[in-house]
Amino acid sequence: MNRQLVPVQALLTDGSVVSVCELGPGDVMALLDLHRSLPLEDQYLRFFSTSPRQLEDFVRRMVSPDEPHHVVIGAYRDDRLLGAVSYVVGEDPEVAEVALVVSHAEQSHGVGTLLLEHLVSLARGRGIRRFTAEVLMMNFKMLRVFTDMGLVWTVVPEDDVVHVELGLDPSDRYLDAVAEREAKADVASLSHVLRPESIAVVGASRSPGSVGHVVLRNLVEGDFTGDLYAVNPHAKSVAGVDCYGSVAELPETPELAVVCVPARAVPGVAEECGRRGVRALVVISSGVDAEELMKPVRVHGMRLVGPNCLGVSTSAPGVRMNATFAAHSTLPGHIGLVTQSGGVAIALQEELRRLGLGLSNLVSTGDKLDISSNDLLMWWKNDPETRIVALYLESFGNPRKFSRLAREVARHKPLIAIRAASSEAGQRAAASHTASTATPSVIRDSLFQQAGVIAVDSVPELVDAVMALSTQPVPGGRSVAVLSNAGGLGVLAADACVRHGLKIAELSDATSKELSRLAGPAASAHNPVDTTAVVGVEEFARCLDVIGADPAVDAVITVTVPTALGDPTAGVHALAGTPVLAVRTGQTERLDGGIPCYADPARAAAALALLVERGEWLDRSHEVTRQDRVDLGTARGIVTRNPDGWLPPDEVVRLLKAFGLPVLGGTLATTEEHAVAAHRAFSGPVAMKAVADELLHKSKSGGVVLGVEGDTAVAEAFRAFRERFGDRLRGVFVQPMATGGRELLVGVAADPKFGPLVVTGLGGVDTDLIDDRAAALAPLSTADADDLMRGYRAAGAVLAETDAAAVRDVLLRVAELAAELPEVTELDINPLVVTGGGCLVVDARVRVAAVRPTDHFLRQLRRTR
Fold it and tell me: CA 40 to CA 43: how far, in whole Å?
């Protein structure tokens, strides 16, 4: 068995970086030193003896390439082996015995759990399903490590030994435990970037127009609370800060270095910083050789922001760090902002500043060779200073981890993202209707919707959403009341609400009566409410209170204009539990009391719609449950027997039935006689479908004949297929005719980065005539499935006449199939015939391909390019 000797870097709980790799013969001495350095107590707990016999032979056998059933993974720091974990496969190829040893000095730093996570991932990829171990009952630390892993485990005590068994399936509990450990380690490492006690600006030029000069000046003028140094061999001081000739000459080791030197010099500066013990770098310079930069970053265990970035800032009183070259500092606040684009960062910063909204952190990731939005989500998840997270992402490094992180953060804090390109250009030609739907934008939007990320398309939209989310409660529903002193603008506001999927609330008779009393007989007391231009500030405020008290009202939009008779804007105020958004023609601003005020009714309605969507997402259950009547063993056997290409129709039927899907079924006939016999077995008219090489869409290509009855007609249809497709014909699938009903499409398209996408929409001939589909990423919760089956334009009409519960069940089962079998790269159920009494899969195609096992949730830093 080939050893995976190329190391990956990962973080321990204290934020330090270690190299994790599969060990080989070259690691024998390091393994021996590790074991021999153990105190007697640790040796006894590991080997049940204080003097293990033939230790050298044992170690050499564990790492020998001649022992394919032995696997060892180790963690190194500075060429010193901190710990090792191993497994040995026994008679059952799916079961292995596991053992762990960690240097006494490194225990309680997370080495053991990190190594076990990597061993679990490696073992799963090699077909191992369970780990076993024998642990002394007095070895509380080892038992605690197994407990903390989050895997399903059983223990059987026997005398002074505990027999442990660990299931290796990556359940939500296990992934949550891994994520919690990763967040703890990541936050510890990011503290060197976002809360440093000392900073050195390398390349701090005396020229006021240079980036290095501006960064240093911003740190000085921002009153950075820590120690500040400048590196410039040609100056004694810059911006009042003493200069030193090199990083090595600094009087103390800075925690963070901001690098503003020419691109060709950056790798050398990074190496110098690493040797000095700098913990993190922010590289502003652009045009840097990524591979050359990452070498010293990884060798010395540093974290990196950039290169090609604006920089970072933190407004916390204990830090006050503005390590950017932005023209203005950010206001202190509670918005965490991460963006790949420096220009977008500046635009957002300036607009938020104008509105009096401040940032907790700004991180411009630039080329994001190391620190990415995933890292920042882990930081902001538990950061009390951050209450809203804003993102601008041009690409996803690990979208599946992003989705899981975003979903967790969004439960507690709003996440807002500006949509941008998410991957390379999409498929220009697809083999199925499902695959043609799986464009990058569709996949990205599905991820955002399911993860609770509020998606917008521009900087102004993001700012509008932030204003609403930072000051207003989430509404309890979609019913909106509009209160205005200008009737026409009130009508425009109501129209905008409807366009954005909101409802115009039906005010009660008591509410309308009170409004008429307050605003006078000339007012319109029905929604949208027009108080007329003569209403005063006090009366307008009381009208707002009356509307807010109506149980039918979930939110209020006020629209006010100044007239010669007065301006009721000052009467707009907050309501307990009910969001209020104001409109005042002109410039977007914030009113007294923090009420967000928009320049146009349409912008207010759009922002309110985003508030409503967040409330609905929070009210949903996001739990993914396993379906009953699923035979995974049979399903995995089918994809194993057919490792590549489109499955034969009979295997498709077996696969779908293994997941409990209602399949019509049929017989694959390879001769006329066989087709006739199949027809007789079904005792009624049949559908005949050609199975031929490169035949993707049967109906278009003349590969389907319906309602065939009688032996002669069946034989003639078979011969017609043979004449039409010639040597390409592999057989004819004979099925009983399905009863009439609405025809839908349900499919799966696999994306190597984002995972499987489940698609549904109109099926049958409508698929080719009307491009009307919805999509969501697997796996699906019940709420996800409901959103999916209602997500295409014709869904309302379809569900009104069909069995919605049966459609939901099909979607959930197809999603589970996609999640459990990554080998299924494409699936088309078309049509799925749906009636008022259930569903029936009439035709389906499944394509499989060998896939390399990938653990998207494994704890590791980005690999060196």
Answer: 5
Same domain, 592 and 712: no
Q: Are 581 and 475 in contact (CB under 8 A)?
A: no
Q: Do 679 and 556 lie in a common domain?
A: no
321 pairs with which residues across the strands?
A: 314
Distances from the Cα of 622 to the Cαs of 131, 452, 781, in angstroms? 30, 10, 5
Residue 764 — pLDDT band, cuts 50, 70, 90? confident
* Strand partners of residue 482: 557
692 and 577: one domain? Answer: no
Residue 742 pairs with which residues in a beta bridge? 834
User: How far is it, in rounded angstroms, from Cα 513 to Cα 509?
Assistant: 6
Cα-based angle 767, 771, 772 (whole degrees, multiple of 5): 95
Residue 307 CA to residue 865 CA, distance in Å, equals 14
pTM reported for the whole predicted model = 0.90
Domain boundary residue, one of 722, 737, 752: 737
Q: Which domain holds residue 598?
A: 469-619
| Cα(241)–Cα(230) distance, integer angstroms | 6
Exposure string over 229-253, b if 16+ CB within 10 A, otherwise e: bbbbeebeebbebebbeebeebeee
Max Cα–Cα distance, the chain, nearest Å: 101
Q: Give tens-digit pLDDT for 562-612.
A: 988 889 999 999 999 999 999 998 777 777 778 999 999 999 999 999 999
Number of domains in the chain: 3
Beta carbons within 10 angstroms of residue 793's beta carbon = 13
Assigned token pair, 215: 């960064």
Kindly tell me if the per-residue pLDDT of 422 is higher than 50. no
Predicted confidence band of residue 249 (pLDDT cuts 50, 70, 90):
very high
- Please state, in angstroms and rounded to a whole number, the distance separating the CA atoms of residues 657 and 343: 53
Hey, is 113 helix, strand or coil?
Answer: helix
Reported confidence tier of residue 5, pLDDT bands at 50, 70, 90: very low
Buried/exposed 853-865: b ≥16 CB within 10 Å, e otherwise: eebbbbbbbbebe
Alpha helices in 277-372 (DSSP H): 290-299, 342-354
Task: Convert the pLDDT of each residue in 538-575 to its tens digit.
Answer: 999 999 999 999 999 999 999 999 988 889 999 999 99
507 lies in some domain: yes
Nearest to 305, CA basis, from 357, 367, 252: 367
Residue 549, helix vs strand vs coil: helix
User: Does residue 678 share a domain with residue 609?
Assistant: no
Q: Which two tokens stand for residue 452?
A: 């609770």
627: DSSP letter: P
DSSP string of 189-214? HHHHHHS-SEEEEET--S-TTSHHHH
Output b/e per residue, 633-664; b: 16+ Cβ within 10 A: eebeebbeebeeebbbbebbbbbbbbbbbbbb
Radius of gyration (Cα) for the chain, nearest Å?
32
Q: How far apart are the first and last CA of the chain?
A: 26
Identify whether 335 is part of a domain.
Answer: no
